[in-house]
Specification:
Number of strands of chain B: 1
Helix content of chain A: 40-55%
CATH topology of the largest domain in chain B: Cytochrome Bc1 Complex, Chain C
Order of helices and strands of chain B: HHHEHHHHHHHHH
Structural class of chain A: mainly alpha
Radius of gyration of chain A: 34 Å
Distance between the termini of chain B: 39 Å
Mean pLDDT of chain A: 89
Structural class of chain B: mainly alpha
CATH architecture of the largest domain in chain B: Up-down Bundle
CATH class of the largest domain in chain B: Mainly Alpha
Number of helices of chain A: 5
Strand content of chain A: under 5%
Largest interface: A-B, 80 and 92 residues
Largest sheet of chain B: none
Number of domains of chain B: 2
Strand content of chain B: under 5%
Low-confidence stretches of chain A: none
Oligomer: heterodimer
Low-confidence stretches of chain B: none
Order of helices and strands of chain A: HEHHHH
Amino acid sequence: MNARPQNAEAPAHERFPLKPGKTYGLMCVVPTRTENTGSAAEKQVQSWPAALSRELLLFLVTVVALGLVSYFFNAPLEEPASALHPPNPAKAPWYFLGLQEMVSYSAFWGGIGIPGILVGLAMAAPYLERKRGGEGVWFHHSRSGANWTFLTLMTTLGILTLIGTLFRGENWALIVPW
Amino acid sequence: MSIREVAVADEAGLLGRIYRSIFRVRPVPQTELERSQAVASNFFFHIHSAKVYEETLKFKKTLGLGLFSLFTFVVLVITGILLMFYYVPAPEQAYQRMLDLRGVVSFGTFLRNMHRWGAHAMVGLVILHMMRVYLTGAHKAPRELNWVIGVVLLLLTLFLSFTGYLLPWDQLAYWAIMVGTSIASYAPVVGDQIRFFLLGDDDVGREALLRFYVLHVVVLPAVLSALIGLHFWRIRKDGGLARPSTDE
């Protein structure tokens, strides 16, 4: 190899010749965002058996619980259907009794308007709540506004459902179930 | 050791080879690699990642509500298929078939009980699951789409339960569907058309029973199953179950 003057045009390995007896490491800067910088390592476990065994357990609990309920309680079966003998009151399945209760105040708003708005709100919820934080924590303090709004709506629906189920008798009049 | 090598290793005659042709790992995998393979090489397990965050496995984090919903659905599919062997979706026969389930079919009452209570339980569990997800902030970015899919799954669950409600063809069923479908007719302009489309008639009758039956046993379960698959797949694509950021 010819000795050449050390100028800027020379190849890098000539400008910075390796020195014998020294250890070199190769490093570079990657132009990207690293997610976990500065955070503690999260403990991961093998899905087999940690997740699978828990899933099996929950499956068995489901089957046993449903089996026990089905053993002790019989599903209702009333008289054959007859269009000539309407019961008073006729009630929708329990999960629609909140709607039926609202319908008794306003047919459109109770049956279509409010349920439609609620479903729309539910679908829009994650897009409306843009502030980060509080994921995976029950009732995180940074989300108390959202949680309270949600709980208020759900409780209202629950109370309406309860009224429709238990406290409505003949001609949809208020009754006391006991 | 690759999957192929595991397959070749400790072959024990014909039975061993048959076993290896189905399962690529030992019944009880011993090493980390084998455990990963046990998940990745199994059709039913491979929707899981090989590893999960220990934090998200804690029962108090999820109360197991999503899985309880799924497993209740599985029980409903099994009992539902068995009930289909006995059921006829026609007004003259449907109710008689209910009486047969009670009096003639072995374990018929138990089968119907399980399907009925399971259906009520599933509606409740899915609602509770939704509340859990919201109250733990697990619906937020990057899981927005999975939340929306979840809302659709809730609506499908309600509709699935509602269509099944008519099938016993007793007074409870008949008038509940009468009331329920009349709610649909309160929609402006097209309300009556929607109700007619649901019932196939102006009132609850033969056509409604057939329509609800087909929706209940084919259309809705198929759509629900497909969306459940998507829902689970998205959990993994969105980075597993929601958990607190570690630098908080």
